[in-house]
Amino acid sequence: MYKVLGMAASRALRVLWMMEELGLEYEHLAHMPRSKEMLDINPSGKVPALLVDGQVILDSVAIMQFLADKHDDLTYAAGTVKRAQQDSFTQFINDEIDAIIWCAARNSFVLPKDKRVPEIKDTLKWEFTRSMDILGKRLGDNEFLMGDKMTVPDILLTHCGGWARIAGFEIPDGPMRAYFKRMIARPAYLRAFALRDAK
């Protein structure tokens, strides 16, 4: 059985949602970042991690893509143009959405106070709005980023959207706001999200 390590109110939510979408059995160990349990398997102490067959996989995107490939769902096959287009979305979201929100978090509470640059957050919000506009144009009238098929970057982006709202970033009105509403209404998302309150 898979073991997902990391509190659900973190990037671990992405992996938990993926598990729910795929209908997989798993055990959730809600360890805090930098806890002894996480430091024992990841020198950075970051969450999440996936334990499978006695092996450890780190990083939420690597875990999600592994699961999608292994179970042949929520992805296109490696070596196809569709997979390259899917990976293009994943890389854009990592570079232009996740990295922006993480930079804001580091300069709000993660870094030591003397290392923070709070003034950068206005620039980050401007970048975020620009990136949302680009994604909105790429999404167009599609239900999902890749058209009519949900894939890994949809989970990644939707999690980033929720994280952004919590961090005070505004989701512009238009296609992206409607997209996020559709995604967070999915039953699998709601099951995973409920784990944030589990004891």
Structure report:
With 199 residues, the chain is an alpha+beta fold. It folds into 2 domains: 2-74 and 188-197, Glutaredoxin; 81-186, Glutathione S-transferase Yfyf (Class Pi), Chain A, domain 2 (Up-down Bundle). Helices cover 55% and strands 8% of the residues. The chain has 8 helices and 4 strands; from the N terminus they run βαβαββαααααα. It has helices at residues 12-22, 36-39, 60-71, 81-110, 120-139, 152-166, 175-184, 187-194, and strands spanning 2-5, 26-29, 49-52, 55-58. Strands 2-1-3-4 form a 4-stranded mixed β-sheet, with helices on one face. Strand 1 (2-5), helix 1 and strand 2 (26-29) form a beta-alpha-beta unit. Helix 4 (81-110) runs parallel beside helix 6. It is globular, with a radius of gyration of 17 Å.
User: How can the largest sheet be summarized?
Assistant: 4 strands, mixed
Write down the secondary-structure element order.
EHEHEEHHHHHH
Count of spatially separate domains = 2
Please identify, by name, the CATH architecture of the largest domain. Up-down Bundle
Number of alpha- plus pi-helical segments: 8
Strands, total number: 4
| Structural classification | alpha+beta
Low-confidence stretches: none
CATH topology of the largest domain: Glutathione S-transferase Yfyf (Class Pi), Chain A, domain 2
The largest beta-sheet arranges its strands as 2-1-3-4
**Estimated helix fraction:** 55-70%
Overall 3D form: globular
- What percentage of the residues does DSSP assign to strands (E)? 5-15%
CATH class of the largest domain: Mainly Alpha
Kindly report the average pLDDT value. Answer: 96
Report the end-to-end length measured between terminal Cα atoms. Answer: 21 Å
How large is the radius of gyration? 17 Å
